[in-house]
Specification:
The protein is an alpha/beta fold. It has a domain of 186 residues: 3-Layer(aba) Sandwich (Rossmann fold), CATH 3.40.50.720. It has a seven-stranded parallel sheet, with helices on both faces. A two-stranded parallel ribbon has the order 7-9. It starts with a strand and ends in a 19-residue tail after the last helix.
Length: 281
């Protein structure tokens, strides 16, 4: 039996696979194409095609309770035939912090179902069956650079809305993989980690500070400063007078419960304009 089954060797899955390989942990990863020596499998396929593992990590969104139930029950039904009724892998499911609207939100905050939709339904099913849900903040690392996200604010209206709440929470893919590794190698992972956890690094970032380097964002801000409401919001009349940085924003995600439980600290923090510290140790 493999120690870990990683369903979806995407962004986080690749970091995790590299870490598991480094530590000599047996694992199987899946992709929809079977690339890079992975098992070819997708969510609509029969879960009986998947190998047995002590921990199953689901990195892609499950669309609702029904899909989560089908995946887990098919998998258990098949492998209990071979390993007995006592076989019960620990499920780790990766979600998003998007449905958490309280300031700040913690692991005890109820997600906003209207913001989370089917993904939250799947999360609740996993939690209800003794699994672990990691709600991840904005993922970055490698080619996934926060500065590039300025492209999502291609109109003044979109940027105006973003200026009302500039806080941004991030977590590096390598830190997520470190956290998952700590969970799957814990001898009492079910007792310690079952339930919901919010995951970000221990910094709150200012989206405006990150995006202001983009020419179109700077141009939009200069135009928006002609509006009284925006000037009052930014407490500035000129772009160079706008206060930016962590002190200018409010923390929305408090992940301290998670890192304390892991007895780890986030290792890879983001700095505007600096290279990825994981790629350049």
């Amino acid at each position: 039996m493999k120690t870990v089954l990683v369903l979806g060797q995407g962004f986080v899955g690749k970091y995790l696979a590299d870490l598991l390989s480094t530590h000599g942990v047996e694992y199987t990863s899946t992709t929809t194409s079977g690339r890079d020596n992975t098992l070819k499998w997708c969510a609509s396929d029969d879960a009986a095609l998947l190998p047995a593992a002590e921990t199953v990590v689901v990195t892609f969104p499950l669309q609702g309770q029904a899909e989560a139930r089908r995946l887990t029950t098919e998998y258990l039904h098949h492998h209990r035939k071979a390993h007995g009724d006592a076989y019960s892998p620990f499920w780790v499911y990766l979600g998003s912090t998007r449905p958490f609207k309280e300031t700040p939100s913690t692991r005890h905050t109820k997600p906003d179902l209207s913001a989370g939709g089917p993904r939250v339904e799947a999360e609740e099913y996993i939690i209800g069956n003794g699994g672990c849900v990691l709600n991840l903040a904005g993922l970055w690392g490698g080619d996934r650079v926060p500065e590039k996200w300025a492209r999502f604010y291609g109109t003044k209206d979109k940027l105006r809305e973003r200026l009302k709440d500039r806080s941004l929470h991030l977590v590096h893919g390598a830190d997520v993989s470190r956290a998952i590794y700590a969970i799957v190698t814990s001898t009492d992972r079910a007792a310690r980690f079952a339930g919901r956890w919010l995951v970000s690094d221990d910094t709150v970032y200012d989206a405006l500070q990150i995006f202001i380097g983009a020419e179109h964002i700077r141009g939009f801000v200069e135009e928006l400063l002609s509006e009284t409401e925006v000037r009052e919001l930014l407490s500035a009349t000129r772009i160079d007078d706008i206060a930016v940085g962590p002190s200018a924003v409010t923390r929305r995600i408090d992940a301290s419960h998670f890192w304390s439980q892991l007895q780890l600290k986030p290792k890879y923090l983001y700095t505007v304009g600096q290279p990825d510290p994981y790629s350049n140790p």
